[in-house]
Amino acid sequence: LELESDLRHALEQQQFVLHYQPQFLSDGKTLTGVEALLRWQHPDRGLVPPGDFIPALEELGLVVEVGDWVLGEACRQMARWQAQGLAVQKVSVNLSARQFSSGRLGQRIAAILQASGIAPGCLELELTESILMQDVGEAMRILESLKRLGPSIAIDDFGTGYSSLNYLKQFPIDVLKIDRSFVDGLPAGEQDAQIARAIIAMAHSLKLSVIAEGVETQAQLDFLREHGCDEVQGFYLARPMPAERLLEMLGSA
Ligand code: G
Ligand code: G
Ligand code: MN
Ligand code: NA
């Protein structure tokens, strides 16, 4: 398979790159952090989005190795930005199911954090509900070991899976990310509006912070701010971009 040999070479030839999408307080102005998003800079195909190759990485068993590279590169970039005086508080990294349940993930993350020199609290790990619900006992054990290292934990695509509220309460998590499918219909769509309000209220009653993703309009931003959503992320505010562009956009302090 051409894709397989291409992917095996991509790592050693350093064809993977991270783009970073800014996240803001719901004033839409104050930068809080960035989400690291993997792309493949392919010699012929150009910039390939993760949906086109992450499933293949999973199947080939390469997703753990690439995932470790993503974690390392995101932490190194965070250290660079901080050295450049950029006011980025945290970098958020998506974990795949295989990566989450790979042995010694905590030890590898501890080593990555230490090598980068960033404060562990500057790293956030994004997990989906389905990753956590596969084996709840195992997930609890892994989450607790990760939390002890210092990173915060966010539940990505929240509302699309089926996490039990009972587990949500027990898991040591910090942030719910409202899935963009619910942000789509805001503010006019009555169902989406009710779901978004319910997620915000539930997050706050569980003492969790809540961020909405996929914000594409001013009206969506207004709704989310008025209803107490803590943070926002989406094309209306900023698209994912290379690290250097973020530096240009924000300027150095
Ligand atoms: O950037 P884009 O919208 O194309 O991302 C599509 C999907 O790929 C999203 O669900 C996102 O969470 C996932 N993704 C992006 N980068 C990474 C990564 O580094 N690791 C994993 N496991 N998933 C990622
Ligand atoms: O599953 P996850 O939340 O990690 O997916 C993140 C992906 O969502 C990113 O790759 C990014 O390209 C995409 N994304 C970010 N903001 C928006 C947006 O406002 N609209 C849409 N349609 N996609 C977005
Ligand atoms: Mn994500
Ligand atoms: Na998401």
From TrEMBL:
Domain EAL: 1-253
Residues of the full protein shown: 738 to 990 of 990
Name of the featured protein: PAS domain S-box-containing protein/diguanylate cyclase (GGDEF) domain-containing protein
Species of origin: Stutzerimonas xanthomarina
Chain coiled-coil ranges: none
The organism's place on the tree of life at top rank: Bacteria
